[in-house]
Amino acid sequence: MNRSPLHDRHLELGARMLPFAGWEMPIQYQGIVAEHNAVREKVGVFDISHMGELVVTGAGAGDWLNGLLTNDVSHLANGQGQYTLMLNEDGGVIDDLILYRRSAENFFLVVNASKIDEDIDWLSSHPAEGVELLNLSSGYGALAVQGPKSADLWATLEPSILLPDRNGISEREQGLILCRTGYTGEDGFELFAPVEQIEKWFSRILEAGAVPCGLGARDTLRLEKCYPLNGSDLDLGHTPLEAGLRFFVKLEKANDFPGKETLLEQRKNGLPSRLTAIAMTGKAPPPRHDYEVRDEEGGEVLGTLTSGSMSPSLGKGIGLAYLAPEIATPGTALSIAVRGRVFPAEVMKKPFL
Amino acid sequence: MNVPDQLRFSDSHEWIDPTTPDAAPVGVSDHAQAELTDVVYLELPEVGRMVSKGEPMAVIESVKAANDIYAPASGEIVEVNEGLAEAPEPVNEDPYGGGWMVKIKLSDPAELETLHDAGSYREHIS
Q1: Mind telling me how many Å the CA of B115 is from chain A's nearest CA?
Q2: Contacts of A27 in chain B (CB under 8 A)
Q3: Of A38, A137, A319, B62, whose CB has the highest number of CB atoms within 10 Å?
Q4: Rg (CA), chain B
């Protein structure tokens, strides 16, 4: 089990630690709801040192990446980033990631902790002359500072260092990297620094008033915004079109990429399923991953939840499931099976919040 | 952590008040509610159900997970705190008061001797 460079700090702060993607990470400190609300209303800080950091360099780096990822790398100027996906030949999702262009010959990729090895294997199996792939994951610690007050917090900490624009990246002395991105739907930034410096940043950000937040709140925050979680909502069995990520798939770009043919065929013939937002309509237990989605009467199984939780901001149970397109329209009445009983639910417009 | 002296406790962190064996209130300890945090849903048994010591009799759900609640003693469920089904907050805010979940008419009060007293429970959670 990997440990974050902030492991001892988490214990001092009273965190509950649990395994996640091969890492022992804080799930919560004082409680998921309080941490969730801190991010929606003020500012919170998450340890995301488990995330993977890859660097691709070389004269052909951009073109090579454009032939392996779904978004259009050529749209990026220096200092800009984009959400993008890595697919297998069948159009299934290997990983979702953020790709930043530092220069024409240097790209920074932030990938899921659980997928670092798979990503590297996949990328390395498509080698190109003069393009080098580096895995810097073990060298970086990382923090996500998220919430409407995150830019104010940074301005009081480091008034001389401007945050990049939305989705952008900027770099400073001593290997500090700032990205204006996140996974909560709030303004915020992600800070990457050499592992030996991350504790200093964590302490300063806490002292400046950020609430320490665990992966539990990270999950409820992202689910309310319908941001998919790889391994739950994204998998090799569904394409990004089915996942509702069409905006991040550029089928018209010059480069072919793995999975493109499947996506073109789905666009032509229709999607077999859609990742659908579902909310409980009355008093009900929180919906959870793997619960059955059934028809309104509760008899027919229509799918299973890929994510589910009580939504702290909405005060009701919410979840996601791949359903047939004809039932994936807002307002469709459904039910969710919990411990042998069914509770009423309905299809919602995405995102929930 | 609050551990009232008059109560008995199970290994799995349920408390029971032994002073009224015909309708002994049961809930989860202050320690348990602090571990769970943010209780958002409770599924309680029906009045009249017979339960055996150690049997799952209710489900408590936090934002993150669902957990079973076990009967700390055998007997009949004679009362259920229905208000918790609508608003479970007392489980966190007042675990030994408004957070009581069921009352059990004990069929074998001697079973209580196998539970922790307050001192032993304090050691159990330390």
Answers
A1: 27
A2: 64
A3: A319
A4: 13
